[in-house]
Amino acid sequence: MTPASILSATEVATLARAAGFELCGFARPEPIPPQVLRAWLDAGLAADMDWMAARAEDRLDVTRLFPGTRTVVALACAYHVDDEATADSPIARYARGRDYHATLRDRLRTLRRLLREAHPDIGTYAEVDYGPVMEKVWAVRAGLGYVGKNGCLITEAHGSWVLLAVMLLDAEVDAYAGQRVEDRCGQCTLCIDACPTHAIRPGKRVDSGLCLSYQTIENEGAAPEPLRVAYSNLVFGCDLCQTVCPLNAAPLPAPGHRFLPRPVAALSVRELAALTPEEHHALTAGTAIARAKYDGLRRNACYALGAMRDTEARPLLEQLAADASDVVSEAARWALTQLPPALNPPRSSR
Prior knowledge:
The protein is an alpha+beta fold. It has a domain at 6-173. Helices cover 35% and strands 11% of the residues. It is elongated.
């Protein structure tokens, strides 16, 4: 579009809602102060996620990604679904339905199409969370919410049960976010207190190496032994710091069917540990759970069974202790050490 072109913020927000985004806000593409990212990286809180530092300059300045950017459109989808069958699922809420990357990409494509139908010359760049864009920073700048003490974006209508995306436009809009959303956390420390591994640090920062979301998804090796006892009923991701948050008590439900739980979310820890390769593929295909891969999911399930001291899982764990996967067999052997000693059968009186 020509530099003089100015879009209606109301129109763009209406198109975003039509594309499936519950929240939409606008910010000018001013560079992010380096300290926002550098302090976290320099403190070693990124664990082995080296890609966070690899393109740090691009993360801090979106105009490096999309020259000519005039507006950053921050977008959010709600994903909280009440479902009795999966209320106690060991799978984090965001991963119980279709892979959110696919859902948000579909909605971004729809938004791009709607924008181009209305403004054929508009240029765009969009991403979910796989590229070098700091979505939470832009969500805050665009007035969608604020970052809570647990590092999650908290919104008025949906709490922190939201997934974020960003679209860059080469045109201005006629209204950008005014004042930022007020921080409502106050003196509350429930999220900090609920974290079983003490991963939540001062300054709204999270130590990735201690976070169970990182350990159950990103870490492909063995989890540090001190963290394993915290895996109780946790196999993929962790919602503990969000579940205790008072601002998450009554979120508006996610509309549509994309985030409805799939059958895999109704399985128990023991059932997840016992999956065959064929069952795993059939149940996790098209979900975010597939990221943990077959061995990773079973490794996590073994840790969880040990943390839960599930004595009924002993035969399964003994079987998995001889599994061909080193990471699974080691996890199963550790889990067996957490179980109470097996009772010896009574001796015959003969």
